[in-house]
Amino acid sequence: MIGRLNHVAIVVPSLEEAANLYAGTLGATVSEPVSMPEHGVTTVFVTLPNSKIELLHPLGDDSPIQSFLSRHPSGGMHHLCYEVEDIYGARDQLLEHGLTVLGDGEPRVGAHDKLVLFLHPRDMFGTLVELEQA
Q: pLDDT tens for residues 83-118?
């Protein structure tokens, strides 16, 4: 069911500092920041030869990742994102196996303008997992 690792998401206290570290110090290609009000985050993507890193920063105090940053002020890994060929089929299969899909269970448009959904960390060994339509 799962395919390629699409990205690893890291919550950062400063997008500018994190982007500068990846671009300037590590020599990576870094996107411009994109605000996503519907998700409550601003994102920057670091392109790697085999995957991406998504740098996340809260967009406002009611952002779903603000509490994460409050608990981890220096930032930290937030989630892994795997690609799937059929997000609805993947969702249905996971639900049949008793896994919890967060939210209302319906995929929403994510940062790459593709459908995504999230699986509860308790079902995934303590790791928040995002699935993205390939």
A: 999 999 999 999 999 999 999 999 999 988 999 999
Domain regions of the chain by residue span:
2-133
pLDDT tens across 26-65, in order?
A: 999 999 999 999 899 999 999 999 999 999 999 998 999 9
What is the distance of C-alpha 18 from the center of its chain?
A: 16
CATH number of 2-133: 3.10.180.10
Whether 85 is catalytic: no
Catalytic residue among 17, 32, 83, 130: 130
Rounded CA gap, 54 and 46, in Å? 6
Cα–Cα–Cα angle for 132, 46, 101, nearest 5°? 25
